[in-house]
């Protein structure tokens, strides 16, 4: 008799366990060690629970700080160094010293640079750089990039103007990353007359230089 009672007790317990664990397939039941059930690791771009994460360092409380930004002073592996010259006339002058950091140019690079130029710049500067893009009817004083002034202009100066904008031209820093801006400059070089033609026009540069200096912000 005792055996039967024990047996029934075990059977009832098993049935109850089975029933309770089948209640809902979606419900994981009671969780102990929640960090293992819900990992604190997160995926890029995943939505983060604002009850758990905060991007405001002043509002930490019990929350985890995460602002999707790289740590100050760090750069992504393979990324070019930040451009630090200020957006003023001194920065503009000094920019001429900054060299284009891009290495040898492959066919794919030049195709990509041309694509970027045609998307971002050709609307004003024209596909061949002679300032005849569709917007040239609306926007005045677009630079004809094939003129001697721009043939002799340093890559760094172009980079400065593309980064910060200049007069009627806006900044392209948010549309093109640093590498893409240097690539577009290389592409502009391919639109310009070659070195021989540039030297014959060197005397004209002297005249246009003073005009350029006036335009400088
Ligand atoms: C909205 C029309 C417009 C677009 C788009 C535009 N530019 Fe310009 N760009 C201008 C104008 C206007 C100037 C003349 C600025 C001045 O010197 O007053 C200029 C000047 C320049 C200069 C000479 C800068 C200097 O220091 O004198 C370069 C280089 C240049 N643009 C490159 C680019 C590149 C590269 C792009 C695309 C990423 C681009 N521009 C897109 C209008 C434009």
Q: Which short descriptors sum up this protein?
A:
Cytochrome Bc1 Complex, Chain D, domain 2; disordered C terminus; mainly alpha; 217 residues; elongated; 2 strands; binds heme C; 2 domains; two-stranded parallel sheet; 10 helices
The ordered H/E elements are HHEEHHHHHHHH
Distance between the terminal alpha carbons, to the nearest Å?
103 Å
Shape: elongated
Helix content: 40-55%
In terms of quaternary structure, the protein is single chain
Instruction: Please count the beta strands (DSSP E, at least 2 residues each).
Output: 2
Say what the CATH topology of the largest domain is.
Cytochrome Bc1 Complex, Chain D, domain 2
Largest sheet: 2 strands, parallel
Could you say how many structural domains there are in total? Answer: 2
Backbone CA Rg: 32 Å
Write structural notes for this entry.
By secondary structure, the chain is mainly α. It has two domains: 34-69, no CATH class; 89-215, Cytochrome c-like domain (Cytochrome Bc1 Complex, Chain D, domain 2). Helices cover 44% and strands 2% of the residues. The protein has ten helices and two strands, in the order ααββαααααααα. The protein has helices at residues 2-21, 34-37, 89-94, 107-120, 122-125, 148-151, 155-164, 178-191, 195-200, 202-215; strands at 53-54, 64-65. It has a two-stranded parallel ribbon with strand order 1-2. α4 (107-120) crosses α8 and α7 crosses α8. The longest helix is centred in the first third of the chain and has 20 residues, at 2-21. The radius of gyration is 32 Å and the shape is elongated. The N and C termini lie far apart (103 Å). The model is unreliable at 198-217 (pLDDT under 50). Bound molecules: heme C. Heme C binds at residues 120-121, 123-125, 135, 139, 141-143, 150, 157-158, 161-162, 166-169, 172, 176, 184, 215.
């Amino acid at each position: 008799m005792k055996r039967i009672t024990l047996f029934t007790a075990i059977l009832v317990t098993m049935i109850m366990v089975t029933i309770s664990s089948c209640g809902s397939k979606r419900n994981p039941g009671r969780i102990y060690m929640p960090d293992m059930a819900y990992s604190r690791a997160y995926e890029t771009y995943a939505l983060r629970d604002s009850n758990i994460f905060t991007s405001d360092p002043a509002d930490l409380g019990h929350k985890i700080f995460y602002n999707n930004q790289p740590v100050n002073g760090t750069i992504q592996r393979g990324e070019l160094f930040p451009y630090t010259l200020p957006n003023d006339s001194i920065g503009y002058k000094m920019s001429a010293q900054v060299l284009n950091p891009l290495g040898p140019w492959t066919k794919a690079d030049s195709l990509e640079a041309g694509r970027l130029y045609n998307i971002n710049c050709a609307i004003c500067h024209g596909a061949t750089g002679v300032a005849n893009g569709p917007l040239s009817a609306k926007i005045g004083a677009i630079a004809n990039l094939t003129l001697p002034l721009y043939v002799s202009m340093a890559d760094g100066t172009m980079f400065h103007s593309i980064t910060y904008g200049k007069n009627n031209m806006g900044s392209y820093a948010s549309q093109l990353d640093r590498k893409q801006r240097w690539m577009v400059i290389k592409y502009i070089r391919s639109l310009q007359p070659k070195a021989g033609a540039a030297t014959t026009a060197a005397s004209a540069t002297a005249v246009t230089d003073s005009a350029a200096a006036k335009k400088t912000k």
